[in-house]
Amino acid sequence: MKSRCPTSRYNGPGARVARPPAAQRGVGRTNFGGPPRDRISRMSIEEIEAEALKLDPQARARLAEKLLESLETLSDQENEALWAEEADRRDADWDSPSGSARPAADVLRDARAKLK
Question: What does pTM read for this prediction?
Answer without folding.
Answer: 0.41
